[in-house]
């Protein structure tokens, strides 16, 4: 997720002299851990909540409902606020932690913030894997959420600052790719651990999060802080020395001067949030906020969080549900690669619009199949129809993964001007976490009440967001980041009216 350029401390028009050095490569591996950790947390909860032993221990009421045939509606077996809280509490904590994280990234630097994230992840993982009761389980999720809040603010920032300009864009989507790999890894782990006899497989599932957590922690001890962060905190000489080391060239003066200048400009903005609310920053703000709300209202996390539960609901056995979740996880990774390849060729708008049609159609097919075939108390789908549902879910996930997944993060990060970039990024992460929380907390109850209509609900949202893209989202492909105002906003049929206002924010 979250990405790039969130700092108000760099980036000009120049592509400075730079080699791709070992330090930069090590940093990419670090990013992998931040993204993997985030993805692992997204993917692990659904599989765990569909494991009978886990339910028996922590949610006996839900367990009973899943065992009794014909009493509870198929759609309502998992409708339980506590069970949803197990998934959603992480995002609530992440959202809160984002505020603290934006402070520590600024005052203590990216490196220390990543270390804090790693420590939260480790303690959270221990609580989860060793949980004896629901309280321990939820505390563990909250700690992991704090880790996500800190990591998602610091790691992408760290990456975008340490990378040479020419690979910054690709790195931006690489973070998303790592998130999808984390989700897939979690799906695979659940598939394996569900088979462990003795009923402790869920502990292993939750405990294996310790691997990326430990790697992130150790990694953050090894790496240097970014030159941008050092310079912004007044450590000019150290910043210059680090810049030389990471670029692997001796003449870093032009880049160094630009960072110093950008730091100065950024430090003059005394009230970043108030600045963000000015009329002339309205287009970017509206787009960033809408992109996050829309990204979550595609319904993607209904699948990412609850695919095994969902497949179980429509009649798959436990094994087949976990297996199907692995397939959707793999499609998610592969389709993200498509995005990396095509985003600067086909452009953002085309990907979003094409995906809108594909997501709409696949959700409608799922709604029709479930509407006709999955009744409250009837038995499962036939093999052919079950396959059709899995194929349609995959078609939906693929479309998301080459559009709203990465672009939901990329577009806000590339449209804010330097002076609002940092505040803009915090708002972007926060809004995303709020709506991720909402979906995590509400989906199983919505499934119970809307039944197959839940997919019609999401497809209606997909139509709304596609219309938004069609009329209000300008193309930002190949536009240098500091030229957005002149080349994009001032040219747009609607947003240009926000560009000709005075400094006090009046039109
Ligand atoms: C979203 C997550 C989602 C993931 C799926 C990300 O861009 O922010 O909420 O789970 O994509 O790959």
Automatic annotation (TrEMBL):
It comes from Rubus argutus (Southern blackberry). CDD domains: MFS_STP (cd17361). Its main location: membrane. GO terms for molecular function: monosaccharide transmembrane transporter activity; symporter activity. GO terms for cellular component: membrane. SUPFAM superfamilies: MFS general substrate transporter. NCBIfam families: SP (TIGR00879). Keywords: Membrane, Sugar transport, Symport, Transmembrane, Transmembrane helix, Transport. Belongs to the major facilitator superfamily. Sugar transporter (TC 2.A.1.1) family. It is found in: Membrane. It is a multi-pass membrane protein. This is Major facilitator superfamily (MFS) profile domain-containing protein. The chain crosses the membrane at residues 20-40, 82-100, 112-132, 138-159, 171-192, 204-224, 285-309, 321-343, 350-372, 384-405, 426-446, 452-473. It comes from the Eukaryota. The keyword Membrane applies. Residues 27-477 form the Major facilitator superfamily (MFS) profile domain. It holds the Pfam family Sugar_tr.
